[in-house]
Design goal:
The protein is an alpha/beta fold. Helix content is about 45%, strand content about 25%. The protein starts with a strand and ends in a 7-residue tail after the last helix.
């Protein structure tokens, strides 16, 4: 299974970088999970829609060819960890690679979100982007553990 976490933002707190790296290092070789960071557009007074459109172009360019897109969005679908695991199983079995996209401070371009295969909500709470990265990496690892029968996840 090939998974990319594509995130706007290149400077995260060290604790977040360390936590994401820790979870990504736990995956077995047949689960290639990696982080791709995308440069945010400078907030320089231009209209927000233009800034988000520019970031969307960068996101499209960063997503590896052939990957389906799942956008993290506060208004997206809520999945349990087991439902996420089942989605990953289906995608893996269908030979699909997945890019989970985390937008910048002002979110993600609406057109980009509309084109995504799935819009996923991590929480009803507003999360800082660094924590969203950590939470997503942990949940992907937890979903893997469910599929692998690994004891990390307990119901």
């Amino acid at each position: 299974m090939r998974i990319a976490i594509v995130a706007v933002g290149q400077r995260q707190p060290r604790w977040a970088d360390d936590a994401v790296a820790d979870y990504l290092d736990r995956f077995p070789a047949d689960w290639a999970v990696r982080l791709i960071e995308v440069k945010p557009e400078a907030r320089d007074g231009r209209p927000l829609a233009r800034l988000l459109a520019t970031e969307a172009q960068r996101l499209r360019a960063a997503i590896p060819a052939g990957f389906m897109v799942v956008v993290l969005d506060e208004r997206g679908d809520e999945l349990t960890t087991r439902e996420l695991a089942e989605s990953l199983r289906r995608w893996r079995d269908a030979g699909e690679a997945v890019a989970f996209v985390i937008g910048g401070a002002d979110g993600i371009d609406d057109d980009f979100k509309r084109r995504a295969r799935l819009r996923l909500r991590l929480s009803a709470l507003t999360l800082p982007h660094a924590l969203a990265r950590v939470l997503l990496a942990e949940q992907l690892y937890r979903a893997w553990s469910i599929l692998a029968g690994h004891p990390y996840h307990r119901d």
